[in-house]
Amino acid sequence: MKENQTDTRVRVRFAPSPTGPLHIGGVRTALYNYLFARRHGGTFILRIEDTDAARFVPGAEEYINEALAWCGIEVDEGVREGGPHGPYRQSERREIYLQYALQLVAAGAAYYAFDTPEALEALRAETEARGGTFAYNHAVRGLLETSLRLSDDEVRARIERGDQWVIRFRMPEGEDVVMHDIVRGEVVVNTSALDDKVLFKSADGLPTYHLANIVDDHLMEITHVIRGEEWLPSLPLHYLLYRAFGWSATQPVFAHLPLLLKPSGQGKLSKRDGDKLGFPVFPLSWRDPATGEVSRGYREDGYFPEAFVNMLALLGWNPGTEQEIFSMEELIETFSLDRVGKSGARFSPDKALWFNAQYMHTRSDEELGRLFLPILSEHGISVGLDVAARVAGLVKTRATFVSDFWDLASFFFVAPAEYEQKTVEKYWKGDNPERVREVRSTLAALGDFSAASLRETVQGLIAVREWPTGQVMNALRLAVVGASKGPDMFDILELIGKAETLRRLDRALEII
Ligand code: GLU
Asked: Is the beta carbon of 17 within 6 A of some atom in ligand 1?
C-alpha cells in the first residue's frame, strides 16, 4: 500500500500489557498507530495483552484507557468499545490459543517440553560453571525432556498423568530470516543465535506473548504492526511463526519505532531520569498499588493534552518542514511512517515546556480564566469569570502553566505587602515619589478609568512636566505592583479600578 492513500482495510493495534502506568514511549506508540489509522481511514484497535499473570497490576488497564482518552486518541475497537473481533482482552481469549500451539506441534514446528524449572535451573548453573551461557536451543533440545526425544506414548502418558509441560517453538538451525521493516528496511538475522521460545504453558493454560500476539494479530486482521524498537529482536520469531502457521501471505507489515532517549542522548529514557531531572515520564500521575509511591504525570503537572501530543508526535517523526505546532487534525493529515527516523529520539524537558507555552498563548482568555478560578479561590479570592479571564489574558504570554498565573498576577487581587528592595533603590528616589503623588491627584480627578483614557492622561502629564517616562512609570509600577513586573501598567490600573489604584498609591507614598 502506498503512503497517504485511503485504505479502509488498514487495521492497526496498540497492544499494551497492563503491568503498570504507560510510559510516554508507550503513548507515542499508541499515537503513531492512531495517526496512521486515521490517515488512511482505517481502524485503531486497543488490545490488552494480559497473559502474563505474574506481571498484572491492578488499575493499569484503567490507566491506559484514561491516558488515551486524555490525549484524544480514540479507540475504534477494544475492551470498552467492543467490535467484531472481540474479546479484546487476551485473558478472555484463553480458549483460542491452545489449538494453535497444537497445530504447530502437529506440523513439527513446535514441541512439548517437560523439563521442570528445577532441572532447567540446574542445567543453567552447570553451563555457567563451565563459563557458558545456557540457551534452550537446537544444540540441547534433543537431549532434554521433549517430545522430540520421547515416544508419542510416553508424551501422552506424561500429559495424562498431569505432568507440567510447555510448548516450545522449534527454531530452525542456521537459516537467514530476511525481514522487512518500514523504518529500518531489510533486516537479516540468522536463527542459530535464537532460542526455542516457550509458546504455551500448561501450568496456567495460557499462551506467552509471542503466540498470543501472532494469533491475535492474525485473527484481528491487523495489517500494520507499529511498535517500539524493543520488539525488534522478537521479529525473526514472529516471521517464523507466521510461516509455520501458513499465514505469511497475510502477515502484517512491521514498523519498529526508535527508542526515546534520555535528555543527555545516552540511553533509554527511564522513570529515574524523570525523577532526577524533574519531569514526568507518564501521561497521568500514578500511584503504585504495591508501594504507594506516586509518580508525576503530564496532566497533573498542568500540560495541555494537545501540547503533550504535539511534543510526542515529533519525538521520532518529522514532517519534513520547519513546522512544529500541529493540531491532532494536522498530524493526521501529515503523518507518515516513512518519515519516522531510525535513530533514537532524544527527549527534551525544555522542549516539553516550550510546547506547553505555545499552546498556552493561543488558548482563549475565557478557557484560561475558567482554569484560573479554582486557583484564585484557593487563595481566598472570589471574582467572576470575566475578571479571571481578563487577567489570564494579560499574563498568558508570560506563563507556561496555568499554575504560573498566581505568581504572575496575584497583584491584581491583593495589594503588595512589601516592596521589592532593588526596585525601591532604583526607582523610588529623587523626584519620583513627588511625581507619583501628582499622578495620584490627576487620577483622582479622572472620570473615565479605562486603560486608553489612563494612558492618555498619564502620558500627557509626563510630557507636559517633561519627566523621564521610564523613571515615572517604574515608580508607579512599584507602588501598585510592589515590584518591576507585570503586564501593561494601564491595563493593570483599569482592572483593579480607581478606588484600589488610589489606595495603593496612598499606601506606597506613606510607607516606602
Ligand atoms: N504487549 C506488548 C507490549 O507490552 C506488545 C508488543 C507488540 O506491539 O507486539 O508492548
From this structure: yes
